[in-house]
Amino acid sequence: MQAFLVKNPPNRTTRKVKNIEKMEHSIGVDLGGTDIKAGLVSSVGDISCRVVVPTDVETGGPKVVASRIAEAVRQVLSEAETEGIHVASKPDATQPTSSETLVSEIHIGVGLGSPGLIIAETGVVHFSPNFPGWSDIPLITYVNAELVKLQPLQLHTHKKYKPILRGMDNDVNAMTLGELHHGAGVGYNNLVALTLGTGVGGGVVIDGEVYHGSQNTAGELGHTVVEPNGRYCGCGNQGCLEAYAGAKNIVERTQEKIATGRRTTLATAANAGTALTPRMIAEAAQAGDELAIEIFAETGRYIGIALTSIAHILNPQIAIIGGGIAEAGEKLLFEPIRTELSKRAMDIPAQMKIVKAHLGNDAGIVGAAMLALEGSFK
Predict the structure, then answer these.
(1) Residue 26 and residue 9: Cα distance in Å, rounded?
(2) What is the CATH number of the domain that holds 265?
(3) How many CA atoms lie within 13 A of 155 on its CB side?
(4) What are the residue ranges of helices labelled H in 155-194?
(5) Cys staple from 284: which of 109, 213, 292, 341, with CB 3.0 to 4.6 Å?
(6) Contacts of 109 (CB under 8 A, 6+ apart)
(7) Domain around 57
(8) With contact defined as beta carbons under 8 Å apart, do 48 and 40 qualify?
(9) What does the pLDDT read at residue 378?
(10) Residue 330's CB: how many other CB atoms inside 10 A?
């Protein structure tokens, strides 16, 4: 599988990862229902190479998925050797430290971001909508069992790799950690992150640490109620932010307005049976379509209402917004969000900055790698 080198944008600042005194690499794995994305990441957030492998969840259970994760790790290390990248890692304190051992064996941490309710301290998937039937799955055990099968992994040189899963969390928490250390969150200790995609995910950082809550369910910002007795959400409740700002729901609201006879350039596509997408709606808005502009103004308003509540409860310094919907941009989406926050919040909470995420699709891999460097298991 082809891997490629990715350079960081110029002048990007980073945040020091705790317990890391010198350059160190880890492997970040972003687990999805369809694909597994993985890459070699340095402690300053540089992605040296990345690979994508199919999850294969339909062909087997969690042990099959664990084997695919291990395969992604193997491919990352293989590509790193092919590219001549020196993989720097922290020596394993439980192993002998002779010069011969240090030269030949490289103990490298792996971090994993997984969708669903994750017990980060024990590496257990309690529940995941992406993986039907999964309940209290000890994924750390399965993944490390597969990684052990690779050890010592010797590829093209004399080096022997010993990868081990050292950290795991919900995928949005991993993305939040990525933005905290190497993205829009650098320089802040208290923040919230929203991902606007098919659904609406969230992450919370308090005093520099991702906050999990008493039962690992903190950060469900998409289920903040913004319209009592409003639209039904997939969770069964009414009026959740996700019911207004998720991709599917943005399209549904647009279709409902078209059905009332509203004039819009989107009607031609809708009437022809073409499936509308948030991107199409955003492009129409950028071209001046009034209905499309209205849709994004409403979306921004609802996000602003949710962030007002969050600002009053948590008083974060900054709210970071990412995901595909955020690509609608400043004028269409971010300005309405800020306007609503300014209108509703008290003076001090209203000072919360609202910015677009910096890492884009890399946030999951970078954040997962930071999990490996910091370690989440107890």
Answers:
(1) 20
(2) 3.30.420.40
(3) 16
(4) 171-182
(5) 292
(6) 26, 27, 89, 90, 163, 164, 165, 166, 167, 372, 373, 375
(7) 25-176+363-374
(8) yes
(9) 59
(10) 10
